[in-house]
Amino acid sequence: MKTTTPAFRGNKQALPSKPCAVCGRPMSWRRKWARCWEEVRYCSDACRRRVARP
């Protein structure tokens, strides 16, 4: 009987990342953000709400 391990799907360290505009936490690229990666600025809804609006 052969035991199998899940296939390695890629090097996650090679994905682009950028800091959150509010807290500075690094955000890694997600497939969901593929079309709008340039527009993503916040790591969470909480940071989005914390932004001071003029």
Structure notes:
The chain is largely without helices or strands and 54 residues long. The protein has a domain at 16-50. Helix content is 11%, strand content 11%. A hairpin with a 6-residue loop joins strand 1 and strand 2. The chain is elongated and about 40 Å long.
* Multimerization state: single chain
Structural class: little secondary structure
- What is the helical fraction, as a range of percent? 10-25%
Helical region count?
1
Q: In one word, what is the shape?
A: elongated
Give the termini distance in whole angstroms.
65 Å
Mean pLDDT: 84
**Which residues form runs of ≥5 with pLDDT under 50?**
none
Binned strand content = 5-15%
Q: Looking across the biggest beta sheet, what order are the strands in?
A: 1-2
Radius of gyration: 16 Å
Topology as a string of helices (H) and strands (E) = EEH
* Biggest beta sheet summary: 2 strands, antiparallel
Q: What is the β-strand count?
A: 2
Fold blueprint:
Elements: E1 17-19, E2 26-28, H1 45-50
Antiparallel strand pairs: 1-2
